[in-house]
């Protein structure tokens, strides 16, 4: 074998090992910087020697080609689901049925029931060759390219005692933290929120672009192995082997010899599961011996050797009083249920999320219906079902409104989307106020003015759009007479408005509140279109050429600037003195010196402020991040760096640099 191939193989092995340490064991042994260096070296070697391409190389984790559609694949063994039980009695009955059916000693394995998306993984000669969704149980979608991006799923197995070919099944999950962050971002963009991590995970796995899947940081737990020559007759023993080969097997996997032990497991995890980073909704019981499993067999739907016990979701029954509709900054209309107040897990619930028209229709909701509300993992409770037996004949069906509740405009819904929008973005009051609220935020124009102030000044007729902020000083004598105002508070507001004229172009672009143009997109746009006129003149085709700008964002920008009112607003804001081009200084200072580096800033500094350091990092092509992880390349530390941060950086082996060292890097 030539030496290039040897180098490639060695790097692949090392990177696979580090991936495993980090994503399965949660115990990294090298810094992210070193990891990235190795990855870079491997990428370069692979690019120079395309003959050695391997779809299971760790370089392919970031996602490669875009799939157009998913191929349908037949499962070798049908993917059955499990019979559900909801009480201890039913669990005892199952145990008794197994005991009678086998008529000999047996062991039962208790596991957590993970609430994600089930997956079947095929390994051939120690390599992942196919990943198939459950589908209808007989055939599913081939999502191999997407699954390859999930770091806790081994692409190559460790050791050498695995069967030539076998299947392992498990669950793909979106951790709560990732789910919360994703929904936060979606809320900011007024996109449809995912109801729970399972839906978010399913939506992610169906993405056509594996790069998006890679960015969503999915996780996995594997819980069942199938094949001709498995290592042991015991399901538990096979899972322990799978753990040695590099799979993520839950620590909450226990062999039990009696019903009492099973109930102890259930009681323990019913409480403890709330501390897990992923969603679970019950316990799964499985007869351990595969031979005994075969003897018990299956019905057409469920195995007779396994069952699930579902944890009780805390729910309450209450009356639906009415449905109201909220209009957000981008015009998205969200239905909300107003309920007769009811106690649920320690709080009083008065409102519940209804998400969108489809959700209302699926529930077949009627006003005055008795409805079940549940607090799942979601923050806002949701209505999960209607108690139709209690429905009065005269209850009126809920139909989604057709006109904006605020301005009366006809609502619109894009093809294939679930959300209705009010198209009257220039004159609809909550949209105007919402846009102003966004405009003044710290990350945008940083104007000292909260939502109540905006409401007050809007109602008084002083603010019609954001450009009116800049002539507010002319209304000073009137404002001072209004409730809650004094000389000082007015001066603070006017000063911050004045100061906002210095806010750089990319933040002004973000402040405009163009749908889907968040902070990062605004920065990207400003770098490519260094003044607003060139951005306004850009075509759809040109926009989608920009890194990270897809069709949806491009179309939204085009739509925004097509509107006469928005073009006039830009003219007004220019006349008021706002920054609409990237300063010459910034353009000339832009470098690639920190390209690919993620830097965390901590403590206080002498030579520049934290914000200035943040800007310097970005100006030089690096990324600033708020928290230390194994992805961090450097911590830029000033005085008084917190001890917890210091310890974390040290434990992950991340290099800590001071002001001078940093400034030297960008010299
Ligand atoms: S075993 C024939 N074990 O629950 C046995 N399933 O209703 C097949 N699930 O589709 C499944 N955690 O998506 C098994 N520890 C676990 C599980 C589990 C979650 C899901 C799985 C399956 C569904 C069955």
What does this structure look like?
The chain folds into 6 domains: 3-62, Helix Hairpins; 74-310, DNA ligase/mRNA capping enzyme (D-amino Acid Aminotransferase, Chain A, domain 1); 315-390, OB fold (Dihydrolipoamide Acetyltransferase, E2P) (Beta Barrel), CATH 2.40.50; 429-502, 5' to 3' exonuclease, C-terminal subdomain (DNA polymerase, domain 1); 505-588, 5' to 3' exonuclease, C-terminal subdomain (DNA polymerase, domain 1), CATH 1.10.150.20; 592-666, BRCT domain (Rossmann fold). Strand 12 and strand 13 (332-344) form a beta hairpin. It is α+β, with helices and mostly antiparallel strands and 667 residues long. It is 37% helix and 19% strand. It has 25 helices and 22 strands. The strands form 5 sheets. Strands 12, 13, 14, 15, 16, 17 and 18 form a 7-stranded antiparallel β-sheet that branches. The longest helix is centred in the first third of the chain and has 21 residues, at 3-23. 2-(butylsulfanyl)adenosine (IVH) binds next to strand 3, strand 8 and strand 11.
């Amino acid at each position: 074998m030539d030496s290039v191939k040897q180098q490639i193989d060695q790097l692949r092995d090392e990177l696979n090992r580090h991936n495993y340490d980090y994503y399965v064991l949660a115990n990294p042994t090298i810094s992210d910087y070193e990891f990235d260096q190795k990855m870079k070296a491997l990428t370069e070697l692979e690019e120079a020697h395309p003959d050695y391409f391997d779809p299971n190389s760790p370089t392919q984790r970031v996602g490669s080609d875009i799939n157009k559609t998913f191929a349908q694949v037949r499962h070798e063994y049908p993917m059955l689901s499990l019979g559900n039980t909801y009480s201890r009695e039913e669990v005892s009955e199952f145990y008794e049925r197994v005991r009678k059916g086998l008529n000999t000693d047996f062991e039962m394995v208790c596991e957590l029931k993970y609430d994600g998306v089930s997956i079947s993984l095929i390994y051939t000669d120690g390599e992942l060759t196919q990943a198939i969704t459950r589908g209808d149980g007989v055939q599913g979608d081939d999502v191999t390219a997407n699954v390859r991006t999930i770091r806790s799923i081994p692409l190559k197995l460790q050791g050498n005692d695995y069967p030539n070919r076998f299947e392992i099944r498990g669950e793909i999950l979106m951790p709560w933290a990732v789910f919360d962050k994703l929904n936060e971002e979606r809320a900011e963009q007024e996109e449809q929120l995912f109801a729970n991590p399972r839906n978010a995970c399913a939506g992610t796995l169906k993405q056509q672009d594996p790069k998006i899947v890679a960015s969503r940081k999915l996780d996995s737990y594997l819980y069942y192995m199938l094949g001709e020559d498995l290592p042991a007759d015991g399901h538990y023993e096979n899972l322990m082997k799978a753990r040695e080969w590099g799979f993520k097997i839950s620590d909450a996997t226990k062999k039990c010899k009696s019903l009492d032990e099973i109930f102890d497991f259930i009681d323990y995890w019913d409480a403890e599961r709330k501390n897990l980073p992923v969603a679970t909704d019950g316990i799964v019981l499985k007869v351990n011996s595969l031979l005994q499993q075969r003897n018990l067999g299956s019905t057409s739907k469920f195995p007779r050797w396994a069952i699930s016990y579902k944890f009780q979701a805390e729910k309450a029954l209450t009356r639906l009083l009415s449905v109201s509709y909220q209009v957000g900054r981008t015009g998205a209309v969200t239905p909300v249920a107003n309920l007769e107040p009811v106690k649920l897990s320690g709080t009083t619930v008065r409102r519940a999320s209804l998400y969108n028209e489809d959700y209302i229709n699926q529930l077949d909701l009627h006003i005055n219906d008795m409805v079940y509300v549940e607090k799942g993992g979601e923050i806002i409770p949701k209505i999960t079902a209607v108690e139709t037996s209690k429905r009065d004949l005269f209850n009126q069906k809920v139909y989604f409104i057709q006109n904006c509740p605020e301005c009366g405009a006809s609502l619109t819904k894009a093809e294939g989307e679930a959300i209705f929008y009010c198209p009257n973005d220039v004159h609809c009051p909550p949209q105007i106020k919402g846009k102003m609220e966004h405009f003044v935020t710290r990350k945008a124009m940083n104007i000292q003015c909260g939502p109540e102030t905006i409401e007050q000044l809007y109602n008084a007729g002083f603010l019609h759009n954001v450009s009116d902020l800049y002539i507010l000083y002319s209304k000073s004598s009137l404002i001072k007479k209004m409730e809650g105002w004094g000389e000082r508070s007015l001066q603070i507001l006017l000063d911050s408005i004045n100061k906002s004229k210095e806010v750089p172009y990319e933040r002004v672009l973000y402040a405009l509140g163009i749908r889907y143009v968040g902070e990062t997109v605004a920065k990207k746009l400003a770098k490519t279109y260094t003044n607003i006129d060139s951005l306004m003149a850009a075509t759809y085709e040109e926009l989608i050429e920009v890194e990270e700008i897809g069709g949806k964002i491009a179309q939204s920008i085009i739509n925004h600037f097509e509107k006469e009112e928005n073009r006039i607003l830009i003219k007004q804001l220019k006349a008021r003195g706002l920054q609409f081009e990237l300063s010459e200084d910034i353009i000339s200072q832009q470098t690639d010196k920190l390209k690919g580096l993620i830097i965390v800033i901590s403590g206080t500094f002498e030579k520049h402020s934290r914000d200035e350091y943040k800007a310097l990092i970005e100006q030089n092509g690096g990324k600033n991040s708020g928290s230390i992880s194994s992805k961090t390349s450097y911590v830029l530390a000033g005085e008084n760096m917190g001890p917890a941060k210091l310890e974390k950086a040290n434990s992950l082996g991340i290099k800590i640099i001071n002001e001078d060292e940093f400034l030297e890097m960008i010299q």
